[in-house]
Amino acid sequence: MGFKEEIITRSEQLFMRVGIKSVTMDDVSKELGISKKTLYQHFDNKDSLVEAVIDTHVEREQLCTEEIIQGAKDALDEMIRIGVFLASTIEDVSPSTLFDLQKYYYKTWETLMKKQDEHIINSVVRNIKKGITEGNYREDVNAEVIAKIYAKATYMIVDEIASPNSSFSRKEMIWELHNYHIHAIATPKGMKLWKKYNTEIKY
User: Which residues contact 202 (CB under 8 A, 6 or more apart)?
Assistant: First the structure.
């Protein structure tokens, strides 16, 4: 890992733990044990650092989901493993991190949502078409429409996570979304397999 990548990684850990707005470039330099001058040699300002952190986070998350897709036994195995991955990645994210990103770094937030929206929709469309071929999903499902509904539902979960007063656990929300999604599109064969996988893998 290069030094710039280390700055991004350590900054992401700091942002996820305590939020973004309250963290200053002084805080970042202290966290890394470097001078502000050295930090500014790599990033012109905090905005550019936040943008780099978000870009790196998205790229890493999308790479991980693609690896899950490539290694899955079938469409249902793919969905449950992605659910487990998502539940684990959002577990330690501070609600203030998402709130700060939406309120104070809206341009970066919009870019994040656009990238995620495209990736989620494409992945779900592929998953549905794969499941139909396997006989695990119904043939009368409109993959593009269902994928957009799924993508919008994930944003509702993000909004819920950003709320400090949420009464639901993050794992619970991811599980319910996926369970609802599969019940809507699975064949009897697919539902039987979904229930089997859920006894083997827990969110």
Answer: 84
Per-domain boundaries in the chain: 3-200
Whether pTM > 0.90 for this model: the answer is: no
- Dihedrals φ, ψ of 87, to 5°? -60, -35
CB within 8 A of 23, min separation 6: which ones? 11, 14, 15
Whether 203 contacts 87, CB under 8 Å: yes
Which residue carries 């089997």 as its tokens? 196
- Helices (H) and strands (E) in the chain — how many of each? 10, 0
CATH 1.10.357.10, domain 3-200, yes or no: yes
171 in Cβ contact with 80 (< 8 Å):
no
Taking only the tens place, the pLDDT of each residue in 72-118 is 999 999 999 999 998 888 777 788 888 898 889 998 988 888 888 99
Helices 106-134 + 143-162 axis angle, to 10: 140
**Tell me, what DSSP letter sits at residue 140?**
T
Cα separations (Å) of 141 from 69, 95, 132, 133? 20, 35, 9, 12
